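=== RUN LOG ===
request id: a7f3
mode: sequence -> structure
chains: 1
length: 336
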Amino acid sequence: MNNSNTESSSLGDFSDVAALLADVDALARIPLFRSVAPATLSFYLKECALVDRQAGEIIIQPGRPSEAVFVVINGRTEINLATPERQPLTVLRAGDCFGEMSFLEGKDPSAFVTAVDAVRLLEIPHTTMWSLINVSHALSRNLLVMLSQRVRTDNRVIAESERVLHQYEFRSVTDALTGLYNRHWMEDMFQREISRCQMSDEQASLIMVDIDHFRDFNTEFGHLAGDDVLCSVARAIRKSFRPTDLAARFGGDEFAVLLPEAGLEHAGMVADRARQAIQRFSTEASKRIHQKLPITVSLGVTALHRKDSLENMIERADSALYTAKNAGRNQIAVAA
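=== RESULT ===
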């Protein structure tokens, strides 16, 4: 595949190969033929053919051998790596060629090439291409340049694909509203960290955080104001814990924080500090409704046992959390 980036979709209205070979200007606009002697082209290409393909027609495709290299004379074609229905990798216009990679590798094509419009193509059999390579250093050099461009294009595609993949991976484990990790990530990473602490005979603690009266707040002020509260609590949680602590949105108005290498006493102190920090964020979260409202949370804390699982820790921390709520909210409770 070569993309000359020309804006033209036509080299001219040629009825046959002889007419094309007689037009020196048209030949000069084909990167594959750049600086190749016209006499050489006339001698070797005179037996080639101009072929027409209709819009939407697949010209080459993976799994189907191709015996020619094609040069676009009129119209446009597009390259698709997966299926013709997918977003094209690139669009080829007049002067561009395709099929050179499978020709040089001696393998079947690795991509779909489909006609965007009705196209006219110069079809060069592989045997003719090898003859031209054997006699023309210029054509060989042009092929090397085209291959270099192909590698650069592939590198850009790979870099962009990795960037997009990273974005999707990030979104797949991140809560879209708060920016904290989501429950899917939590269930995987929390359990890994718990297993590591158990193998290393280290302490760890889990804190469950639940916003007080959140359902009533949503009912009275609306979901947008509720979203502000969730984001405010998430920001306070980020600021209240160490970089090595793992925080996630557990679901709804509940959050979870795992503290590796932290015992129950330390976790309780940190949990109370987070509770106070969340109260200080109440002004920011209330901007949307133009009044200061108290935003408080209840927290349940538990420590890691020797043969514990994440599920068991969540169950104990949740039980402690509801103990805190039943005791009046805006406080912490501990379940050893």
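=== NOTES ===
The first helix runs from residue 17 to 21.
The domain at 17-166 is CATH 2.60.120.10 (Jelly Rolls).
=== END ===
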